[in-house]
Each structure stands twice: as C-alpha cells, then as structure tokens.
C-alpha cells in the first residue's frame, strides 16, 4: 500500500497581515511530488495560515488517494502539530473551527504527526510565499512549470496534481493512539489538551529493533522452555516526585514514605512464590536504596547496571512542566514532537531507548532462565515493557506507572516476550 507525506506551511507578513499557505503531497517511498497547492487568504495571522495549509494538504491527499490512505503530516508549526496530536489545547477560539475541520479530515486517513525544522519544510514554505507574492501583484497563484509535479495537470482549484497518484483503497480509516504524557514526562495535566482531538500522534521511532523477542507466538499458548522472568520495580518516593518535578540524573534520596514503600515491596518480593535470584539496580541513589531494602530481605547482593538509569533531563532537572514551558517553550515543543530531540544538555528518548534495550538484552542473556528483579525508573521500565509488547514509542504515553509499582515480563527462547503483570501496587495497600 502506498504511503504519503503531506508538508504544509502558512505565513503572514505582519501577523496579522497579508497571508498565504502552501502544501505539497509526496510519495513517502521516493519523495516524488504528487500534488501542490497554495493560496493567498487576505489579512490573517500566521496560525490561521498554517491551519489553512494543513487543511489544503489533507484535502489534496484525499482527492488523490481517497479515504484510509496512510500519511505522515510534517509541519514546522509546533503549535499546529501539538494541537492536532492532542497534547495541547486549542485555546484560541478563532483557531478552533479550523482545528476541528482539520481533525475531521484527518479522521478519514491514517495519520501520524511530525514536527520538522523550518529548513526541512522548504517546499511548502516556497508555495506559501509564491501565493503571497502573487497576491501582492494582484494575481492568483498558479503552479509554475518548474514547481508543478512532473507530468502533472492543474486542477480546477489551483492544485497541481500528478497523474501518477494511486487510487484510494477504500480501507477503513484508523488512528494510532497518542495522548498526554503526564506520567512519563511528569506533566501538569492542566497544561495539556488531550480532550479536543483524540491524539493520533506517532512520532518518529529511533533506529532500533521493535522488540527483544523473535516475535513468534501470541502469549496464549503454553511455553515450551523455561522462562527468564524480569520483575521491574520502580523506586520509592522522593522529594522531587512529591512536587512532580523532572527527576533524571539528579540524585535525591528517598523520603520516609519512599523507604516505607521499599519495605512493603521487599516484604512481598521476599516470598517464596517470587523466587528472586538476582537483583540489579540503576546507579541512582533512589533506585539503589530501594534495591538495597529488597536485598536485605532476600539475602542477595545488588548489581548496579548503568543502563537502567533514568533519562538525563539536562537543564530541566528539578523543574516542573509549567516552569519548563515558560522558560524553554521552543525546546519543549521540539522534544514533545520528536524523540530524537533532547532537552538542553540532556538525553533524547531515542538515545534512552537504545541504551535501555541494550541493557535489557544483556540481562536476559546473562541471567537466562533465572528470576531477576530490576529496580529502575519510569522511562527505562516503560521502554522495556513496550519492547516486550512490540509497541511504538508513543505507547509510553498510554502507560501510567506508580511509585514502587511492580511489573513482570517473561522471556522465552522459543517464543515471545510476555507481559504478565503491570503497575502492581497491591503491596502498598
């Protein structure tokens, strides 16, 4: 099935001022331009022009490929991408009708949303400027011979359309799950806008395998070999977790309540039914202290694994989401939209994924057939769970992980990795 790319942009010379938009539809496989459209829209703001460009791009794709087409929408407007992905609210009443119109078009397609830097959105930017330049001269934009798709014709609406576009398949439209990343990113929920458009964000994956297993089987059949069991325990409470602050490589100690949470987890894990044989831990103090509490109950030693550390949040360490949004709005938006983007001085989720996956592979190989307890943090634990589930990076936004929560993955040499338990906090009740 053919996949597509829509690149869209809009601009205003004055904000508000003379405005225009441009959009281009490409074949995702080879980058061939299949359709271009642009229009001057009178005096408008940048954001209105950007939404008009998105609507024009989606409309062009539907005319070309029909409902159910798979498309990645790329824009250099962080506002539009984050709002359409469902992470930010549409607070401007003037934009809401345009956002709803765009969302209705997107529901007819299989859409992923991706923010890109302006320099990578040159085609759509060029078209928007051509439309504004034409309007300044009292003309209507039409596609030039140099800019229209090879062998293309000019449609009645001014859209340049290539004759090589695929017909629509008629497949039912589906949307991929996204949504607020409150738990993963320690967001303040009031800063998010998940309710208006239902998400649909799937950001670009890092270069990685999709899972640690071979992918055979479904988890319904009985295993035919001894499992390697990996229990995943999140550390106990710290002062930063109480205040919902980003806590990466900073090294806060457990609070008295965090110590009590560790003791409760240890009492559970020391039971014969668990049969813990190995304890490994992140090097960070909050995880290591939790692991030592369990080790004291089980008579085991703690092996420190550097790869189980939390993501490095760099300059954002110790700040709330609201504080970061106010001080680093552009950097935050880029980080939300692209897993290859890192906080200032920090580590991207793509880098964290590769590190955690390598560590997980190492543990399963080193302790094959044993029962392992790994004490770690939100990001590494969710990464390991999503690898086992063959899930995309956006699945992290759909998981909530409590302090001192216990999860379990079982790995079989002749079949899949199976998630047997998730976010169990029964020991805290």
List keywords for this structure.
single chain; 429 residues; alpha/beta; 7-stranded mixed beta sheet; 19% strand
Radius of gyration: 25 Å
- Judged by helices, strands and strand pairing, the structural class is alpha/beta
Mean pLDDT: 81
Proportion of residues in helical segments = 25-40%
Name the helix and strand elements from N-terminus to C-terminus, one letter apiece. Answer: EEEHEHHEHEEHEHHEHEHHHEHEE
- What portion of the residues fall into strands of 2 or more residues? 15-25%
Describe the structure.
By secondary structure, the protein is α/β, with parallel strands linked by helices. Helices cover 31% and strands 19% of the residues. The protein has helices spanning 46-65, 78-84, 96-106, 122-136, 182-185, 239-242, 256-269, 285-298, 321-327, 329-337, 349-366, 378-388, and strands at residues 3-12, 17-27, 33-44, 70-75, 110-115, 153-154, 160-161, 228-234, 278-281, 302-304, 371-376, 406-411, 417-424. The strands form two sheets. The chain has a seven-stranded mixed β-sheet, sandwiched between helices. A six-stranded mixed β-sheet has the order 10-9-11-8-12-13. Strand 9 (278-281), helix 8 (285-298) and strand 10 (302-304) form a beta-alpha-beta unit. Helix 9 packs across helix 10 (329-337) and helix 11 (349-366) crosses helix 12. The termini are far apart.
Write the layout of secondary structure elements.
Blueprint: E1 3-12, E2 17-27, E3 33-44, H1 46-65, E4 70-75, H2 78-84, H3 96-106, E5 110-115, H4 122-136, E6 153-154, E7 160-161, H5 182-185, E8 228-234, H6 239-242, H7 256-269, E9 278-281, H8 285-298, E10 302-304, H9 321-327, H10 329-337, H11 349-366, E11 371-376, H12 378-388, E12 406-411, E13 417-424
Parallel strand pairs: 1-4, 4-5, 8-11, 9-10, 9-11
Antiparallel strand pairs: 1-2, 2-3, 3-7, 6-7, 8-12, 12-13
Helix pairs in contact: 1-3, 2-10, 7-8, 9-10, 11-12
């Amino acid at each position: 099935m053919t996949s597509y790319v829509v690149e869209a942009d809009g601009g205003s010379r004055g904000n508000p001022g003379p405005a225009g938009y441009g959009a281009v539809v490409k074949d995702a496989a080879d980058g061939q331009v299949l359709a271009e459209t642009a229009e001057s829209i009178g005096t408008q703001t940048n954001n209105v022009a950007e939404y008009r460009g998105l609507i024009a791009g989606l409309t062009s794709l539907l005319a070309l490929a029909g409902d159910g087409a798979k498309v990645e929408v790329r824009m250099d407007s962080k506002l539009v991408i984050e709002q359409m992905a469902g992470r930010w609210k549409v607070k401007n009443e003037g934009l809401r009708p345009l956002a709803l119109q765009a969302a209705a078009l997107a529901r007819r397609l299989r859409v992923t949303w991706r923010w890109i830097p302006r320099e990578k959105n040159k085609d759509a930017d060029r078209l928007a400027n051509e439309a504004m330049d034409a309007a300044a001269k009292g003309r209507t934009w039409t596609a030039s011979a140099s800019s229209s798709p090879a062998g293309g014709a000019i449609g009645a609406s001014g859209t340049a359309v290539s004759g090589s576009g695929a017909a629509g398949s008629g497949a039912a439209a589906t949307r991929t799950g996204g949504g607020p990343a409150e738990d993963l990113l320690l967001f303040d929920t009031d800063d998010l806008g998940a309710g208006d458009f239902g998400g649909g964000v799937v950001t670009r994956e890092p270069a990685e395998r999709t899972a640690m297993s071979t992918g055979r089987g479904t988890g319904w059949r009985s295993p035919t070999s001894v499992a390697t069991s990996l229990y995943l325990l999140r550390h106990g409470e710290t002062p930063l977790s109480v205040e919902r602050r980003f806590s990466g490589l900073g090294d806060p100690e457990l609070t008295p309540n965090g110590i009590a949470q560790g003791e409760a987890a240890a009492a559970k894990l020391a039971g014969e039914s668990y049969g813990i044989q190995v304890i490994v831990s992140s090097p960070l103090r909050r995880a290591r202290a939790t692991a030592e509490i369990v080790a004291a109950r089980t008579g085991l030693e703690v092996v420190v694994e550097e790869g189980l550390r939390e993501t490095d949040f760099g300059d954002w360490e110790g700040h709330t989401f609201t504080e970061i949004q106010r001080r680093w709005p552009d950097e935050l938006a880029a980080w939300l939209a692209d897993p290859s983007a890192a906080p200032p001085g920090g580590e991207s989720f793509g880098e964290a994924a590769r590190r955690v996956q390598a560590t997980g592979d190492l543990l399963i190989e080193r302790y094959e057939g044993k029962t392992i307890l790994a004490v770690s943090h939100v990001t590494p634990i969710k990464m390991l769970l999503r690898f086992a589930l063959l899930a995309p990076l956006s699945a992290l936004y759909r998981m909530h992980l409590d302090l001192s929560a216990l999860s379990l993955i079982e790995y079989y040499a002749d079949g899949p990795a199976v998630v047997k338990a998730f976010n169990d906090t029964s020991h805290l009740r």
